[in-house]
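New to this. Please check this record:
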Amino acid sequence: MAKLLFKICFMCASIPVMAQAQTGDASSTKVWTLSECLDYAMEHNIQLKQTRNTYLSGVEDTKQARAALFPSLSASTSQSLANYPSSDVTDNNMYTGSYNLNASMSLFRGGSLSTALKQQKVQNEMDLLSVEETANDIRIAIIQAYMQCLYAAESVTVSRSTAEASKVQRDRAEEMWKAGSISRVDFAQLESQWKSDEYQVVSAQASYDEYLLQLKQLLELDIMDEMNLAGPEVPQDRILSVLPPKSDIYLAALDAMPEVERGNLSVQAAELEIRQARAGFFPSISLSAGVGTSFMTATGAGTATGSTPGYRTGNQYWNNFHENIGLTLSIPIYSNRSNRTALNKARISAENTRLEKLSIEKDLLKEVESAYLGALSNQSRYIAALQQEDYARQSYDLTYEQFSLGVKNTVELITAQNELASAQQEVLQSKYMTLLNLELLDIYQGIKNL
């Protein structure tokens, strides 16, 4: 999840309906809430469907492993026709048939069958956690893309407002220039600033379109599908909410995050693999049983003329009916070290699995700590940015008033306007990054506010 955080420069947590950033007929376009986007992605995302299919495939493997504990039963039959072309035989053709029913069962294989069943059950749990982990990653990606769209839409609004203010300044400056209050250079500077602000509107709109395309791709929507976005209202106290202790968040994350539990199950699976490898040193015992019968026509076929014919009397099905039962003991004596190698490699794999589990927990701690510090620092930035914006707005208002009176020049006016725009951006950045880190902390703790 930390990689997702690095991809986000500016995020937005909430604004009202974002139709002002859209183009086209908004009344005919579906308005998507964040909750609707998440529900739609959970149902239609291709990667999530593939992960679920992997889990279902593993369930079938578990059923097969359980069935291996029971006897197997098979039936067979064979039919054959033999031709004896010699003129010295009593019968040239003979037709034979046989019918058999066989059963077998492993009585003892060093515990490998029961261990294999336990391994499959653990693997099913791991696959199910992988589904949850994939869904979690997709959920974060959807939130990321949705918030990027909301931020880009708000940037369009802010840029358009700035451009409109620049247009007013430019028109006012034109009147002052014609009246001789300012020079042609001063008027040209304000006109250039207006054009620059107009370009920022176009650039912000292009960014919004790009982010919206990314969201549509995550939702597996068609390229012709249009969408408007709506965001929930986020109260001020949410941004400045008091965080619980970092240690409490981390302990909650250890219980809530699916990758942590998957790491624990991986250790169990590795221990079972050791038991499976150790079973190769034990003898195996299997039981087999069967019944069968056969018959043949022209039982004298193939015998010389005048010789004693074959058996012809009695019911052949009954006379040839037979039963068999057998017990097989297989003792491994020397396997070219294959059993020993399998056991040693299983032990090494188990040790690596334990190390991977520790690595998962350390990575989670790093992510929690990063989000925690990010939330705290951006909360402080947000408070300071609000004050800075207030001061910058007062400065801009005074500068514009003095410019209208001819006291301030165009450079001072443009500087004040840029400082105000910079302060507004700082408010947005700190606000949205705070909300992003708060959302991440909620995800780590298994809290779903959406």
